[in-house]
Amino acid sequence: MKKLSTVFSLLIFFLVVSVTAEDSVLLKENTLLPAGYGGIELGMSVDEVKNALKKNSEFGYNGDRDVSLLPGENRILIETDADAGHMYAYLERCWFQFYKDKLYIITITLNTERIDHYSVFSALCKKYGNPEMLSPEKSTWKNGSVTMSLENPLSLKYVDNKTFDAIRDQALVGPSGREMSRNEFLEGL
Predict the structure, then answer these.
(1) What is the pTM of this model?
(2) Using DSSP, how many helices (H) and how many strands (E) does the chain show?
(3) Could you give the strand order of the β-sheet that contains 75-81, starting from the edge strand earlier in sequence?
(4) Would you write out the chain's pLDDT as a tens digit for each of its 189 residues?
(5) Is 15 exposed, middle or buried (0-12, 13-18, 19+ CB in 10 A)?
């Protein structure tokens, strides 16, 4: 009877461990990451972002003079100087990149005089769990639709994965001569 009880207990233990491990994998895959910051989210149109920027002075948006056309088709960039005129700004500069009138990358450089990398990293880990990728250059959190990265020295980046992958797949530019030469050198080491 004791053997049966022990076997039964072990079975329950392995079942609970198996279900818990399965649940943690599901949680990681379905992690809710922010699709932006300060009322601006990936997928918004240029006009929606301009209106949201006007409502949030934290970004330091100055109107259409902050808007540029990038080389290539259907590419717009809004660049703001968030630090200008803000005595206690945590943001320094912000870039909002659009493709086909939809926001697909947000890059926010943080003010290293007012906040440090470790504080931001700790807050992100507490909120979203450990990063999927960790290197000296950047920490990356990712789910099916958004990649959020904390990059050195101190910037946050939000990327719409679907749009980014589509643009990358369309790019037919091969490596430059300098890149090929560098790769050959590194392979010869």
Answers:
(1) 0.74
(2) 5, 10
(3) 67-69, 75-81, 91-99, 102-110, 155-160, 146-151, 138-142, 133-134
(4) 544 333 333 333 333 333 333 333 333 455 689 999 999 999 999 999 999 999 999 999 988 887 887 766 678 999 999 988 677 789 999 999 999 999 999 999 999 999 999 999 999 999 999 999 999 999 999 999 999 999 999 999 999 999 999 888 877 666 677 877 888 888 888
(5) exposed
